[in-house]
Amino acid sequence: MLEQLQAIEDKFLELENLISDPVVLANQSEWLKHTRSHAKLAPIVAKFREYKVVQQSLVDANEMLKEKLDDDFKSLVQQELTELKAKNEVLAEELRILMLPKDPNDDKNVIVEIRGGAGGDEAALFAGDLFRMYTRYAETQGWRVEILDASPTDLGGFKEVVFVLEGDGAYSRLKFESGVHRVQRVPTTESGGRIHTSTVTVAVLAEAEDVDIDINPTELKIDTYCASGAGGQHVNRTESAVRITHLPTGIIVTCQDQKSQLKNREQAMRVLRAKVLEQAEAQQHAEVAEARKSQVGTGDRSERIRTYNFPQGRVTDHRIGLTLHKLDFILNGDLTELINALITADQSERLKQVQ
To answer: Which one, 88, 134, 213, 216, has the greatest CB density within 10 A?
Structure first.
């Protein structure tokens, strides 16, 4: 790991020189690319430099203990050595976490879908509560909120609401919110004071980037033939008509409207690009739908990642066994402690897998 960290610091220094180079400064897009890379490496390099200072201090302290020291001074050095060892272990753990493979979606914006599950009107009301909780949290993070679709109810809730959160690290902070959220409370419409259990499903999806279509010429089969008119008669005897087969997808496009083979080929490629793009987007949508399905399950009351219990004022995340008695604060957007605990649990699990 130390060799990797040193290589990262070397790259960091190289980028530092590049972003101060007048030639690079003159090329804004190039400068921005290097600046972003530099910023991403900065937290690791800062922690690695701190670690190296502690390492050197450990060496110095051990060397000092080899000398003849009076008891009081020796005791102070030993105490410092104990503190340095503890700090060294903490820094080593933090570096291991920083070196974990990063989720490629972490820096993306998110699309959040909230839908009322079991519980009718009460589920819809709680869907509204969760929408406000996430938007208030977004405000504390400086994220932009944009509603894409909403089906409000007469009582002030939502059958469903879909919105985008745009901002740094949105997906990295909210990706663990996907699943069934269960609420236990006395509905305002309940005259008998009985506690009802309802559910709301939440899906958090990394915003997909535009699908770029790059068609490899080696993956095309191009046939030419004589264009034909009505009744099968040849319009001309030159092979101006074009048939293009995109081998990876099996999409076939033909064009014979133009007299020139080159023109027909250009037109066929325009149609082919559109069809390949359409298929790629359809596949992307299918993958998003599958991700959504895996995240929210059926919305049944027993499928829950978290319970919001109003009578006891508590929120329990069942995945990590964490209970916080601060329901009002959480519903007002104070999600930091909860989200940090989920991120820490995820990091611990991934560390076990690489050790």
So the answer is: 134
Residues 151, 11, single domain; the answer is no
> Rounded to an integer, what distance in angstroms lies between the CA atom of residue 306 and that of residue 322?
9
Instruction: Identify whether the C-beta of residue 307 lies closer than 8 Å to the C-beta of residue 315.
Output: yes
| Alpha-carbon gap, residue 24 to 14, rounded angstroms | 13
Same domain? 115 vs 200: yes
The rounded distance, in Å, linking the Cα atoms of 163 and 131 is 9
Model-level pTM? 0.65
Asked if 201 and 180 count as a contact pair (C-beta separation under 8 A), the reply is yes
Condensed to tens digits (0 to 9), the pLDDT of residues 83-137 reads: 999 998 888 888 887 877 777 778 888 888 899 887 788 899 999 999 999 999 9
Establish if 105 belongs to a structural domain.
no
Quote the CA–CA distance of 280 and 286 in Å, as a whole number: 10
Instruction: Specify whether 196 is located in the same domain as 263.
Output: no
Domain shared by 49 and 118, yes or no: no
Task: At 246, give phi and psi (nearest 5°).
Answer: -90, 105
Number of domains in the chain: 3
Residue at a domain's end among 233, 251, 286: 286
Asked whether residue 308 is assigned to any structural domain, the reply reads yes
206 and 309 co-located in one domain: yes
The residue range of the domain holding 282 is 217-286
Residues ≥6 apart with Cβ < 8 Å to 224: 239, 240, 241, 242, 243, 261
Contacts 24+ apart (CB under 8 A), 336-342: 336/140, 339/173, 339/174, 339/176, 341/317, 342/176, 342/317
Buried b (16+ CB within 10 A) or exposed e, 132-143: ebbbebbeebeb
Q: In the structure, what pLDDT confidence band is assigned to residue 210 with cuts at 50, 70 and 90?
A: low
pLDDT tens profile 25-63:
888 888 888 888 888 888 888 988 999 999 999 988 888
CA 36, 37, 38, 44 torsion-angle sign: positive
Residue of 153, 173, 54 lying closest to 106 (CA atoms): 173
